[in-house]
Amino acid sequence: MFLNKRKKITEQIKQSFGNIKEEKFYFQNIERYYRNKKIIGDSKTISDETALDLDFDDLFMYLDRTTSKVGQQYLYYLLRNIHADQSKKAIKEQLIHKFINDESFRLKVQLTLNELSEHECLYLPSLFQEKYLSPPKWFFILKFLALLPIVFLLLVPVSQYFSLFLLAALSINFGIHYWNKSNLLQYIGALPYVNILFKVARNLSKEDDLLLLDATIGAAIKNAEKVKGGITFFKTNSGMENEFTSLGWALFELVKIPFLLEPLVLFRTLNKLDKRRSDMDKVYSFIGKIDVLISIASLRKGLANYCEPKIAAEKKNLDFTALYHPLIEDCVSNSLNIKCKSVLLTGSNMSGKTSFIRTIGVNIITAFALNTCFAENFLVSKTDIMSAIRISDDLLNEKSYYFEEVLRIKAMLDRAEESESCLFMLDEIFKGTNTIERIAAGKAVLSALSAKNHIVFVSTHDIELADLLKEEYALYHFSEEIKDRSVGFDYKLKKGKLTKRNAIKILSINKYPKIVTEEALRVADELSNTNK
User: Fold this and answer.
1) What is d(CA 106, CA 119) in angstroms, rounded to the nearest whole number?
2) Whether the predicted pLDDT of 293 surpasses 90
3) DSSP conformation class of 363
4) C-beta separation of 423 from 452 below 8 A
5) DSSP state for residue 141 in the 8-state scheme
6) Of the N and C termini of the chain, which has fewer Cβ atoms inside 10 Å?
7) Is residue 510 a contact partner of residue 497, using CB atoms and an 8 Å limit?
8) Whole-angstrom distance, CA of residue 494 vs CA of residue 81
9) DSSP 8-class letter at 418
């Protein structure tokens, strides 16, 4: 039976390589490791607002090809903290290529990782990242209460009255045992998998190629394993192969109650875990890194076109060829080369401006986190990213669209004061206010954001902004074609600002009343002449 199950799992893993996962994603738990992890060095996380702007959850579901829940959480962490793990890039690439080309080696590693594929493994970070429960002040008397049943049992032959004391002691301990169940409930999902975590890490560390990622992992595993004894106590009887072992666990439960073994061992184990947090994190990261490298290998295997990005030494540098968005079916690719410039995009709705900006943001993330881009070539300076694309009214806090946008852009201006590069992505800046103030404020903000080492990608319908910023920004546009009574988009990036105005023509194509379109054309001509 075991061999048949292993053969089935092996075949499933083999078939999944290069393909998108078909499973449910429990993001509240997948995010757990990232939310609690301290930021490493000078890296900055991708904010929740920017993640929403870039459809991060959909992106993650596409990129995630991990085998274990540990790898899944570590992948999420890397994608939200894109500069967190930039060391040993050559070794990682060597391993990625080995995973692609050496199927037997990859399967061996994946079968090991598969032992941590249960949903409960998503709770493992709570054991070394989160604050533990503190024992109550009266906890010190538990050792005394645990001995009372034995004492009274021995005294029963002396006097039958001690049987009443024995019954009272058992009742008290029974109550304490089940009081502690609520404490245990917080950890019981993860505790049984800690020793499996150690086992997986130890087996992976036996592979010389994997040991190149962290030559000191053996010491961390050895230190972390000092908690094994207490952990074994909390093995569950789920998944047992026969009824006799299940019966054994039921009898063990009866033994634990009178002697308060569960609360005593639980808090002792938590105390041991508290002293091994850094070792546990190191073991967890070691497993996560390996799984992420296999995930990258699987991703690349399934792509018709990708590249390994180059990181430019110069600031404010972005150069790519045939860049596309992985989530857009039959996506039209675009190329761009800018140095010491930001980019202002003009064009009508649905022409591709916002999708192009999102495409750049997505590829920045995968460039630094996965050393993989969806393009023929991709070169970029080291940069963080911030965005103001998908903004809405915050009705619960009584904030208007404009006020929400003001707050988001203020955060960008604060970030622009820092010397480290940042890519700012904006869609229709200040569209929540009137034309004159929108253009004036937009020009001032965009000039400030583009200063220093920062790059800005901004879309706008305001041609006036293009004229005001033509010295600071490279001007590009997307346009539509109107033929007969249809509107078509080629989604190709073109140099210069948009010169054609087709909005009123599109109204006519959609059979707006002639009196409306003629009046619109007349007013447009008057406004154009006034502004000359």
Assistant:
1) 22
2) yes
3) H
4) no
5) G
6) C
7) no
8) 33
9) S
Task: Please answer whether residues 270 and 231 qualify as being in contact, where contact means their C-beta atoms are separated by less than 8 angstroms.
Answer: no
Its CATH class, for the domain covering 2-133+186-301, is mainly alpha
Average pLDDT over residues 421-430: 92
Torsion sign (Cα): 45, 51, 57, 63: negative
427, amino acid identity: D
Place of tokens 């998908």: 390
Q: How far apart are CA 248 and CA 225, in angstroms?
A: 26
For residue 176, give the 3-state DSSP assignment: helix
For the full predicted model, state whether its pTM sits above 0.85. yes
Interior angle at CA 333, CA 327 and CA 83, nearest 5 = 60
Concatenating the DSSP letter of every residue in 305-329 gives S-B--EEESSSSEEEEEEE--TTST
Distance CA 69, CA 292 (A): 11
Give which of 62, 87, 88 is closest to 75, Cα–Cα. 62
Considering only CA atoms, which of 134, 135, 124 is closest in space to residue 36? 124
pLDDT bracket for residue 237 (50, 70, 90)? very low
- Tell me which H or E stretch contains 379: strand 377-381
Per residue in 335-352, pLDDT tens?
A: 999 998 999 999 877 788
Q: pLDDT tens digit string along 152-171?
A: 888 888 888 778 888 888 88
Residues found in the chain: 532
- How does the average pLDDT of the chain come out, rounded? 87
Contact call for residues 213 and 289 (beta carbons, < 8 A):
yes
Report the DSSP beta bridge partners of residue 317.
Answer: 339
Do residues 126 and 179 touch, judged by C-beta distance below 8 A?
Answer: no
Distance CA(424)–CA(384), nearest Å, equals 9
Q: Which CATH architecture has domain 310-500?
A: 3-Layer(aba) Sandwich (3.40)
- Please report the DSSP string for 69-86 in residue order: HHHHHHHHHHHHSTTS--
Phi-psi domain of 172 (left: phi exceeds 0; alpha: psi -120 through 50; beta: other): alpha
Contact 393, 399 (CB under 8 A): yes
φ/ψ region of 424 (left if φ > 0, alpha if ψ in -120 to 50, else beta) reads beta
Q: Which residues contact 269 (CB under 8 A, 6 or more apart)?
A: 191, 227, 230, 231, 233, 234
Cβ contacts of 259 within 8 Å, gap of 6 or more:
146, 149, 150, 173
d(CA 19, CA 303): 9
Task: Find, among 423, 422, 429, the residue nearest to 408 by Cα.
Answer: 429
Q: Which residues contact 46 (CB under 8 A, 6 or more apart)?
A: 54, 56, 79, 80, 81, 82, 365, 385
Distances (CA, A) of 446 to 354, 442, 466, 528: 17, 6, 11, 24
